[in-house]
Amino acid sequence: MKLPRLCLALLTTWFATITVAPAASDSTRVYELRTYTATPGNGAAVLARFRNHTVKLFEKHGMVNVGYWVPADEKDGAADKLIYLLEHKSRDAAAASWKAFSADPEWQAVQKTTEANGKIVAKADRLYLTATDFSKKMDAGNGKGTRVFELRTYTAAEGKLAGLDARFRDNTIALFAKHGIINLGYFHPADAAKGASNTLVYFLAYPSREAAAASWKAFRDDPAWTKARTESEKGGKLTAKSPDSVYLKPTDFSKIK
């Protein structure tokens, strides 16, 4: 009976090991945040092309459509900007997907048709991102299209990104949740030239714009936040400047709403 018991113990240990080991895809997964600026008067045309063609072609070539938004305010480009997030298995997979997408005759035909009267996209900005260890999944949410989203970008003071991450991990995200702010994805840029060492990019969601304002007021007035901020900044401020913030509305073809 000793041998079977020993084998059982070894098997139990082995199964436990493979259960807790992170999947390879988790360690290589990257996200891609893209901002498109339409040529004058073509904001609706850009949205139509994505709605009718592009999102399906992205899926065809292995890209995961996470979310599509337009800015909620005119000052942020509500009429001419599209902001979206893709997920890729790896950076190499992203490159392969984009290559296949660009070479797809179906995409080439769509592009030719939609640009018969000229380009409809004036500018496309790209930022590859990796998820932090405290990031929540960017899931589809309630699917009702009533939520308001916020994209926030923090620039850490020199050498302070780890401290900023720690404050979010240990305090901020819990306090956000306490005050009705929905935590979604938290990311760092993947490339040094794009701020990998000093930038935190994250998404939040709220039931409404009014709820967002009320939640932020309650958060800032919370003594627990004051204490966390004071203790975390004993060695100096963690941020180099005020965060950049853009409120977003999900498009009708966005998975996350």
Structural class: alpha+beta
How would the global form be characterised?
globular
Q: What's the number of helices?
A: 8
DSSP strand content: 25-35%
First CA to last CA: what distance?
58 Å
For the largest beta-sheet, the strand count, sense and barrel status come to: 8 strands, antiparallel, barrel
What CATH architecture of the largest domain do you see?
2-Layer Sandwich
Q: What is the string of SSEs from the N terminus onward?
A: HHEHEEHHEEHEEHHE
Question: What would you note in describing this structure?
Answer:
This protein is α+β, with helices and mostly antiparallel strands and 257 residues long. The protein is 41% helix and 26% strand. The chain has an 8-stranded antiparallel β-barrel with strand order 1-3-2-8-5-7-6-4, surrounded by 4 helices. The protein has helices at residues 2-20, 24-28, 43-60, 91-103, 105-114, 161-178, 209-221, 223-232, and strands at 30-38, 64-71, 81-88, 121-131, 148-155, 182-189, 199-206, 244-250. The longest helix is centred in the N-terminal third of the chain and has 19 residues, at 2-20. The relative contact order is 0.17. The protein is built from 8 helices and 8 strands; from the N terminus they run ααβαββααββαββααβ. It folds into 2 domains: 26-130, Alpha-Beta Plaits (2-Layer Sandwich), CATH 3.30.70.100; 133-250, Alpha-Beta Plaits, CATH 3.30.70.
Compact summary:
The protein has 257 residues and is of the alpha+beta class.
Question: Which characteristics define this entry?
Answer:
single chain, 8-stranded antiparallel beta barrel, disordered N terminus, globular, 41% helix, 2 domains, Alpha-Beta Plaits, 257 residues, alpha+beta
